[in-house]
Design a protein that fits this description.
Helix content is 48%, strand content 16%. With 394 residues, the protein is an alpha/beta fold. Helix 4 links the parallel strand 3 and strand 4.
Length: 394
């Protein structure tokens, strides 16, 4: 079992600090949040209790276990204690109860540290921003990288580009139909029905699902919301479609990237470029097999571009960056990475035919810190997918 980078550099280090903030492990489904926490708990010296919330429990359960932890500290003379609650989002109005108990301990100098995690990113964030502002820190976990999938499951680059970064699905790739069903049924569907539908005012659930499935199949392609509307069976207005696409982005499932421009208004008025956060989502809804994709240069080019885009989105999440695309008439740049007013233009070139003149025009117009080719005639795909993107902009 590998240790993800969050193990030592973030979670373990923060739990060793004095009590200041609630620590919240946040990330999409099936990326190893609970596994990470259990790895850390097995090595720390702080006395702790680990609880898993259930839908049948209410907020009084939080009060009860918290009081139990206080009594344990009193009886044993402990100077500090760690309380871990998994799946906390299952409890209605959980954040109000957590706030009450946390503030009471702060007032009474009771040194109970708190670690929260859950399978629904949106439900956790909703509670944090409504009730616990100023009291928490996030530890953002992303989908597994190529380096991690290679180390844990011996994935080669082509396997990673097609099958993506879900560790739970890795053992199923020899049976693609089974792998595809697992990704759709055990990862994608719960993410949409639990993480999105149960946290937001979604008046057309069928439309939400259609946008997700269609958007995944269009990964790396520009598609106006008006044209998307025409392909949906239960189509709402364009504003509703845009709002539902934003919900998928907040759940780290599917994003609509917008065109880079010098002002924010022009950016968000552009046609979105669809991009999955994990290539497994792209291919779970694809009709093409791994062999078909790997032997077709055009199909493979889209796969590579989508994998690069997914990596950019994950790294942007960790480093508070923005990801755009750029296009002017027939010239384009696949991705534009923005951070602290610095930009990097990134063109993915997986074969000899693809032109990169757009990168030259982009450089002349915007003067980026770096204009980078990934693939043929540039940095290799493997090198890029293991690159610390923060260093590109520092």
């Amino acid at each position: 079992m590998i240790q993800r980078p969050y193990y030592e550099n973030m979670l373990r280090a923060r739990l060793a600090e004095e009590r200041h903030f609630i620590q919240v492990v946040l990330g999409p489904r099936q990326v190893g949040k609970t596994t990470l926490v259990r790895q850390v708990l097995s090595t720390i010296q702080i006395p702790y209790s680990f609880y898993t919330a259930d839908t049948e429990q209410d907020g009084t359960w939080i009060n009860e276990i918290w009081q139990k932890e206080r009594l344990e500290m009193q009886f044993t003379g402990q100077k500090e204690r760690l309380l871990v609650i998994d799946e906390v989002q299952k409890i209605h109005n959980w954040s109000e109860f957590v706030k009450k108990q946390w503030d009471e301990d702060t007032w009474n100098d009771t040194n109970i540290k708190l670690l929260l995690l859950g399978s629904s990113r949106l439900m956790i964030m909703h509670g944090l921003t409504e009730s616990l502002a100023g009291r928490f820190e996030l530890i953002r976990m992303t989908h597994w990288t190529f380096a991690e999938m290679h180390e844990a499951f011996n994935f080669d680059m082509r396997q990673y580009i097609y099958f993506g970064g879900y560790p739970g699905a890795a053992s199923l790739i020899q049976d693609e139909n089974r792998w595809r069903r697992y990704v759709r049924d055990s990862i994608a569907e719960p993410s949409v029905t639990k993480d999105v539908l149960e946290t937001s005012n979604v008046y057309k659930p069928a439309l939400l699902r259609q946008i997700f499935e269609l958007g995944c199949s269009y990964s790396t392609e520009l598609l106006s919301l008006t044209k998307l509307q025409g392909q949906l069976q239960d189509a709402g207005n364009v504003t509703t479609i845009a709002a539902y696409l934003q919900l998928h982005k907040e759940a780290n499932l599917l994003a609509g990237l917008y065109k880079y421009a010098n002002d924010d208004a022009r950016k968000h008025q552009s046609v979105p470029k669809f991009q999955v956060y994990n290539n497994a989502l792209y291919n779970a809804y694809s009709r093409h097999t791994f062999r078909q994709v790997a032997t077709d240069p055009k199909l493979w080019g889209r796969q590579v571009e989508s994998a690069v885009g997914a990596y950019l989105l994950s790294q942007a999440e960790l480093n508070d960056m923005n990801v755009w695309y750029w296009r002017q008439k027939d010239e384009e740049v696949d991705f534009v990475l923005e951070w602290n007013n610095e930009i990097v233009g990134i063109e993915v070139k997986s074969n000899h035919e693809k032109m990169t003149s757009g990168l030259v025009t982009f450089r002349n117009l915007f003067h980026p810190k770096l204009a980078l080719i990934v693939g043929h005639e540039g940095i290799t795909i493997e090198q890029f997918l293991t690159l610390d993107l923060e260093k590109l902009l520092c």
